[in-house]
Amino acid sequence: MIEEKLLVSNLQSDKDKENAFRILVKEYKERLYWHIRKIVLNHDDTDDILQNTFIKIFRNIDKFKGDSKLYTWMYRIATNESITFLNKKAKINNVTIEEVQENAINNLESDVYFEGDKIQIQLQKAIATLPQKQQLIFNMKYFENHTYEQLSEILETSVGGLKSSYHIAVKKITTYLKSNEDLL
Amino acid sequence: MKEDKNTEGFNTPQNYFDDFEERLFLKISEDKLPKNNGFKIPDNYFNEVEDKVFSKINQVETNKENIVISLFSKKTIYYAASIAACAILVFSLFNNNDSFDINEVQVSVIEEFIEEGNITIDSYDLTSMLSEEEDLTLENELFSEESLEKYLFENIENTSLLIE
User: Tens digits of per-residue pLDDT, A132-180?
Assistant: First the structure.
């Protein structure tokens, strides 16, 4: 991977911006895709949000001051875009964000881009019972293998707070799965 | 018991043993969870992302260059302005001592407000408002007929409209 400082300075120069941006998209598209997908669950919505995320990054790269790492900044944009999307969907349909998520889970079974079985659906239901921030922490730690230090920068929360949130999240999820075992 | 037995030259992170059980039980709980979440993607999806993003960026840039004035933009601005006015009203109610300048409200803040879905205007609302008071004729000829035609051909999906 090209050194971050050089990449950022290329992204901020008129001459090299487009090439540097191609490198950036290539490097991060998969990671950001899976991050967004775990929040909104559906492929088409994820595709839209991923594109909007990169467009926002492209349009705002000059405002990136290097106070945080580039990928931390991009994850924050992707997270905000995803949550904004869910809120927007909830408002348009006049329902709560929880109902939007419930709906997304119910649609998984007929989704051609979902090949999980009942246990995976139960897992999504279990995750959906968590508060929004715990959902993010669980997904990013369990599935994306971020370190607590990385998470701390992205979510602007202390490492201690993240550790205890993650513990609580795992506990709640295992309890949920256990008490719903008969549904499998 | 001799405390330092077997530890000569070795050390552990601070509090390593204090929360060892907790970490161990967490690991055991994690192991019971499914290892993947069953999500799939269309074939070759990741190969197309760059092109999709660039075509969207170029589209936005081209639109900016052409300074396309949307027929509805005035109305949107009215909406935005009324929202900003409401925001200022609420703000001023709670901050009687501070003076507030409408020019300080950034367009991006208003855009974000609309983007978050705080106002929704459907086409029915728009048409009803337009028929009441808006005259849709372009008074000043901002565009040549040729460039208008080109724009319509490139941007309107329903070509049957063009025949008229």
Answer: 999 999 999 999 989 999 999 999 999 999 999 999 999 999 999 999 8
pTM over 0.80: no
Say how far apart CA A141 and CA A131 lie, in whole Å.
Answer: 15
pLDDT per residue as tens digits for the range A21-37: 999 999 999 999 999 99
Please report the residues numbered 117 through 136 in chain A whose beta carbons come closer than 8 angstroms to any beta carbon of chain B.
Answer: 117, 119-121, 123-124
Q: What is the ipTM of this complex?
A: 0.82
Quick one: which H or E segment has residue A31?
A: helix A17-40
Q: Give the whole-number percent of chain B exceeding pLDDT 90.
A: 14
Two tokens, residue B106: 């950034």
Neighbour count for residue B117 (Cβ, 10 Å): 16
C-alpha atoms less than 13 angstroms from C-alpha of B148 in its C-beta half-sphere:
9
Determine the residue of chain A that is closest to B121 in CA distance: A92
Query: What pLDDT was estimated at residue B93?
Result: 64
Query: Are the CB atoms for A56 and A77 separated by under 8 Å?
Result: yes
What torsion, rounded to 10 degrees, do the Cα atoms A13, A18, A24, A25 define?
150
What Rg, from alpha-carbon coordinates, does chain B have?
30
**Residue contacts between A and B (CB atoms, under 8 Å):** 97
Query: In chain A, positions 47-86, which contact chain B (CB-CB < 8 Å)?
Result: 47, 50-51, 54-55, 58, 84
What distance in Å separates the CA atoms of residue B65 and residue B68, rounded to the nearest whole number?
Answer: 8
